[in-house]
Amino acid sequence: MTVLLWCVFAAICAFAFLNGFRDASNSVAAAVRTRALTPSIAVVLAAFFTVVGTLLSTTFGSSLVSAADLNVPDGAAGLAILLTAVLAAGGWGLFCWYRAMPMSSTQAVISGFAGASGASALLGGDGAQGITRMLVGGVLIPLLLTPVIAFGLSFLVVIPLTWLLRNSSSSDVNTIGRLGQSVTTGAVALGHGLQDGQRTAAMLTLALVAGQTATPTGIPFWAQALAAGCLGVGVLCGGWRITHTIAYRLVAIDPLRGMGAQAVSASMLFIGAIALNMPLSTTQAVTSSIVGSGANQRYESVAWRRVVSVVLYWLATPVTCIAAAGVLFLAINPLLGWAG
């Protein structure tokens, strides 16, 4: 049990690092594209606010622990569900990074939970309780609504912004946009920490609960600090392959539209984490917002074929991670007796 618990902890920390590594692009892509911030300054700023967001609030993470505890049985089986879910989500994340495609780690890991829990139930073990609610609330609804809402709001927010600055020179508009992006870049990173950081801390706590070394009474501070550290270091390392896709291959935007897109995506992340206690994909919110603001221009600026490719990866994420986690659980199941 102890060996398996440490393996789960290592996998969660590696997943958090990879999450920060890939999702650094969400915070910095627009600001780097419009030259509002240099890449090095943007990454340091994003890492700092990601850490702050992770440490700032426990409400969202505590709600995740309460919900997910119903789905993870005690003992080796529960730890195996956690391990295979994280490995499946991490493997898919690495593949998407190699392909320079943004994807949702939130939906990947929730889908992994579903696949591993389903495999456990198939073998006659303790399966997931309320897994349908988990998939609908954490994957299906956000997958369908987040891109649409982010795209629509960002498209619309361009209208009042351009009207307010209609009498300003192009130079002044760009200056205002870049100054605004200096703020909104930090806001997106803060939202990233609120969302992804608290989920990582929640998974660490769930591992303790499944390993019967803690009770689900809340997230300890050390779990938050560990999650913050792993995410922050990952952001500092920065996955520039995906940044290049979001910033240069999908759409051309100016500083004003970049500011509007980041403001919309940050607001959605704040509302999801603080008001709704709902896991939202930082990647989907940011990418859709950037495309939405870029689409509201007089000239064609969106590479729609590439956008469709990104959306197909988003749709493939739940199916792939459910299947991969299920297969991984079946593969390691013969070892659970020894691990227990």
From TrEMBL:
It comes from the Bacteria. The chain crosses the membrane at residues 40-65, 77-100, 106-123, 135-163, 221-242, 263-280, 311-336. Coiled coil: none annotated. One of its GO terms (molecular function) is phosphate transmembrane transporter activity. It is a multi-pass membrane protein. Keywords: Membrane, Transmembrane, Transmembrane helix, Transport. The keyword Transmembrane helix applies. It is found in: Membrane. One of its GO terms (biological process) is phosphate ion transmembrane transport. One of its GO terms (cellular component) is membrane. The keyword Membrane applies. PANTHER family: PHOSPHATE TRANSPORTER. This is Probable low-affinity inorganic phosphate transporter. It comes from Arthrobacter rhombi.
